[in-house]
Amino acid sequence: MSTDEARKSYHKDLAEVRQELVRIAASIVESIPRGTHVLIEQDLSEAERMIMADDDIDTRTVDIESRCIQILALQAPVAGELRQVVTALKICGELERSADLVVNICKAARRIYGHEFDPRLRGLIVKMSDQARQLFSEATGAYASGDASRAAAIDDMDSFLDDLQRQFIQAIFESHSAGRIDLQVAIQLAVVARFYERIGDHAVNIGEKVRFEVSGWLPEHSGAERFRSRQAAPSDEGGES
Amino acid sequence: MNRTAQEKLDDLRDETLALGAMLVESIPRSTKVLLEQDMEGAEYQILSDDEYDARTIALEEDSISLMALHAPVAGELRHAVVVMKMSGELERSADLVTSLCKVARRINGHPLDDRLARLIGAMSEQAHLLVKQAMVAYADKDLAVAKSVRDMDQYLDTLHKQFIQAIFESHTDGKIDLAVGIQMAKTARFYERVGDHAVNIARLVEFLVTGVLPPAGDHHRDGRADLTPIGIERPQAST
């Protein structure tokens, strides 16, 4: 194989890794409303199907991870191409965990099977689901097109999901004290709210990785930033959160 | 890879081990904060997590620059990749441990009954053991220890289920209200997820030693037969 051909197949490899990750991400985007449907309609056979289907995502992400490591070993990429491989490696983990969270929603559906919950709670679940889906879809789009500004916008969108989650927790308390749901359902639903929230967090992480891939920008995690600013000004020891 | 690169990789390994040791040590400490509602200890852990974040990000950056500058191959490449991935596992685990201290703040003034406290202690001990074993596996490149972490994680999942049941019972007995109940359910998941990260670290060690990546998904372990709702009595099919 000539050097030219080797480079060509290497670029083809990089492109295929991206395509496969985008396909996996797109299937997660599509699974979010399905998981929500399972929860709200208490569709246990669909829950079972979705839980089984997750094995496929696990296998595919491991394949991509192995392929990325192979590219690193055989091509020793540098600069932008190294960032592409590193980004793909990191996105694998985010996708795998996000898919697990959708599965967790389906498992929660099994746990609350047969327990009714009121329309307000259902409405908020659908809103959280829509928002999580949209965040994940944006992250997928940003990665597919290598769009750093689209990736940067995801963080702002995520705060809306956090607000919804807080409203939902409030609504759980109200439903519980009005005697409409019992504690067990209340707790399961509170846990479900966190699943959506964490899907949103993974979308934000993917956005950060896209920004790194495009520009070499590394997320200045807020904590790391606070630490540095405290180092710079040791008198400011307030601390939040 | 030349000597400088080897030295850099050794530095990365040392830093990974140091961060791992800090994490291991923070688990029982944060559990104590939670059980004793030690607000000062909570503040300390929450502040030190910022430094931890900074160090894990630096570790990640360093592992990427090592790959960029020295193009390691074979075992050394695997090691650089493992450090890069482990930095994220460590950071997230530390966030979860810190979340325990945030729970301590939220439930401040609501004492936990003995049964809940005992189960929290047991979950903490198991999570602590898992992370410790995963780090030992990394330090010694010990495949057998790495593989044992996955089995040990099942016990943590069992404890998690017992704990959820205990929350329901404590509530029924009027010992805790819904707000504390939700915080407790979150707490159980924090420990469980620390255990999952330990399993991920062990998986990376397996890859480091064998060159083969074992599959990641591990939540099916107990999931497939899990048609019985946990801790919930199924109502008669009236709906």
Largest sheet of chain A: none
SS content category of chain A: mainly alpha
Order of helices and strands of chain A: HHHHHHH
Using DSSP, what is the number of strands of chain A?
A: 0
Q: What would the average pLDDT of chain A be, to the nearest integer? A: 89
Question: How many angstroms separate the termini of chain B?
Answer: 67 Å
Q: If you compute it from the alpha carbons, what radius of gyration of chain B comes out, rounded to the nearest whole angstrom?
A: 20 Å
**CA radius of gyration of chain A:** 21 Å
Structural class of chain B: mainly alpha
Proportion of helical residues of chain A: over 70%
Task: Name the pair of protein chains with the most residues at their interface, and give those residue counts.
Answer: A-B, 62 and 57 residues
Strand content of chain B: under 5%
Number of strands of chain B: 0
Based on the structure, what is the oligomeric state of the protein chains?
A: heterodimer
Question: Could you spell the SSE succession of chain B in H and E letters?
Answer: HHHHHH
Question: How is this structure best summarized?
Answer:
With 241 residues, chain A is mostly helical. In chain A, 85% of the residues lie in helices and 0% in strands. Chain B contains six helices and no strands.
